[in-house]
Amino acid sequence: MEIRIVVFLFFVSVTVITNTLAIFFAYRAFAGLTTKISDTMSDVSKSKDARDVIHSLQIAAEQAAAATETTKIKIAEFDPILTRAHEAYRRNLVVVDAKLEKAAENINTSAEKMRDVVAKPAFTIASFAAGMARMVQQTKNDE
């Protein structure tokens, strides 16, 4: 039983030591990182060139935001115009489609009339020729 307690205590102490070392190294890493960031920010705040660059970047960002807002407003104003133009084009296309449909009907009607004008005499002539051919054939067969 005592051996189990000794083994248990050994593993607990190894775990505690490992956790302590992990926390210590994490603290050291974050402390070093914080120091580096503080030194860099101190250098930036002391440097006139860096402040000028940051200031110019701030101005550019403000101008970009203003331009974006202006563009957004202009597009919002332009949307109803596009909608009206779309509706006008749609109505015009409906009118043109109706006119083309009517023209197609007129062309079909005219083509049928022309076919009837041309085909009726041709049919009559073909019928007459067929009748004559039958009569000639019958005459030949009777002989």
User: Nearest-angstrom radius of gyration?
Assistant: 50 Å
Multimer state: single chain
Order of H and E elements: HH
Q: First CA to last CA: what distance? A: 141 Å
Q: What is the count of DSSP helices, taking H or I runs of 4+ residues?
A: 2
Helix percentage: over 70%
Give the averaged pLDDT, no decimals. 88
Structural class: mainly alpha
Main sheet attributes: strand count, strand direction, barrel closure: none
- Strand fraction: under 5%
- Taken from the alpha-carbon principal axes, the silhouette is elongated
Protein model, in words:
The chain is mainly α. Helix content is 98%, strand content 0%. The chain has helices spanning 2-46, 48-142. The longest helix has 95 residues, at 48-142. The chain is elongated, with a radius of gyration of 50 Å. The model has no long low-confidence stretch (mean pLDDT 88).
How are the elements arranged and paired?
Elements: H1 2-46, H2 48-142
Using brief descriptors, characterize the structure shown.
single chain, 143 residues, mainly alpha, 2 helices, elongated
How do you describe this structure in short?
With 143 residues, the protein is mostly helical.
